[in-house]
Design brief:
Radius of gyration: 18 Å
Structural class: mainly alpha
Shape: flat
C-alpha cells in the first residue's frame, strides 16, 4: 500500500512539474498576449473537467460496491458525452 501511495504522489508531483514547465515555456514563447489566452484556455479546461468529474470521481467510488458495473458505466458515459456536447454547444455560441 505504501508503494502505491508513493507512486501516486510522485506521479502527481511530476505531472505538476511538467505542467509548470509547459506553462513557463508557452509564456516565454507567446509573450503577454499569449499568456492571457493560455490562462483562459486553462481555466476553461479546468471548469469542464470539474463538471465532468461530478459523476466520475467520488460518486463512482461510493456507488461501486452498491450498484452493478454496467449501470455505473453506462451512466458515466451518458453524463460524460452529454456534458461534452453541451459544452461544445455553449462554446459555439460564445463570440471569440
Amino acid at each position: 500500500m505504501f508503494k502505491k501511495i508513493l507512486n501516486t504522489f510522485f506521479t502527481k508531483f511530476f505531472t505538476a512539474i511538467a505542467g509548470f514547465a509547459i506553462l513557463v515555456l508557452v509564456s516565454h514563447i507567446l509573450g503577454t498576449e499569449g499568456k492571457g489566452e493560455q490562462a483562459i484556455i486553462a481555466f476553461n479546461i479546468y471548469i469542464i473537467t470539474l463538471v465532468l468529474t461530478l459523476i466520475g470521481n467520488s460518486t463512482l467510488i461510493y456507488l461501486t460496491p452498491r450498484k452493478e458495473f454496467s449501470l455505473l458505466f453506462i451512466s458515466s458515459l451518458i453524463w460524460m458525452f452529454g456534458i461534452s456536447l453541451l459544452t461544445c454547444g455553449v462554446m459555439a455560441f460564445i463570440p471569440g
